[in-house]
């Protein structure tokens, strides 16, 4: 079930906040396209769909609790629309986007759904180089308050941490499609950032 318009319209307003450049409604639309394509792989697509809409609902680039706040907002706004088990999974999915790691204690089916969501959320890393470069510019714009050298050092560290992972994408489906391009984009971005430090 798609969230009703009385919930979606306020969400769209949130995604249009001035501090956002990448984490905007276009990001949600991009994930919806992946969701529709990957839906046959999902065990509980409704939980994944609602997590998709709310996962960046709260976004302050300088805050450390955006994911928790977004999950809390989902619980407050969607509590009467989702079955308790679906709401619990959507909550876990949103909170997992903080570090893009899979929490322990999930059933195999829920873990699979969460992994597909995390993979979709990082699909931008495998975009065409020009699209990826715009993503990097948009992220920089969201952190405009951070001095340039500090941003470059922190961003380089974040991207290198992704490159050090054995695999960027948890599911075999997404890994086969995106891993190679994502690693090439990340390596190129890290090289550019380090060259300017």
TrEMBL record:
<dbReference type="InterPro" id="IPR009218">
    <property type="entry name" value="HD_phosphohydro"/>
</dbReference>
<protein>
    <recommendedName>
        <fullName>N-methyl-D-aspartate receptor NMDAR2C subunit</fullName>
    </recommendedName>
</protein>
């Amino acid at each position: 079930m798609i969230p009703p318009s009385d919930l979606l319209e306020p969400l769209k307003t949130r995604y249009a906040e001035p501090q956002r450049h990448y984490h905007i409604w276009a990001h949600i639309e991009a994930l919806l396209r992946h969701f529709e394509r990957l839906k046959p792989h999902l065990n509980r697509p409704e939980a994944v769909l609602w997590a998709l809409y709310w996962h960046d609902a709260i976004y302050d680039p300088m805050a450390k609790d955006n994911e928790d706040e977004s999950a809390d907002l989902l619980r407050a706004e969607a509590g009467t629309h989702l079955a308790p088990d679906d709401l619990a999974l959507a909550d876990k999915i949103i909170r997992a986007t903080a570090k893009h790691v899979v929490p322990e204690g999930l059933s195999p089916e829920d873990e699979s759904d969460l992994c597909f969501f995390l993979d979709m959320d990082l699909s931008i890393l495998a975009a065409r180089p020009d699209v990826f470069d715009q993503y990097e510019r948009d992220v920089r714009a969201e952190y405009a308050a951070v001095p340039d050298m500090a941003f470059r050092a922190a961003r380089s560290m974040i991207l290198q941490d992704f490159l050090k992972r054995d695999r960027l994408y948890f599911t075999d489906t997404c890994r086969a499609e995106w891993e190679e391009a994502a690693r090439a984009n990340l390596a190129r971005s890290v090289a550019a950032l380090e060259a300017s430090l």
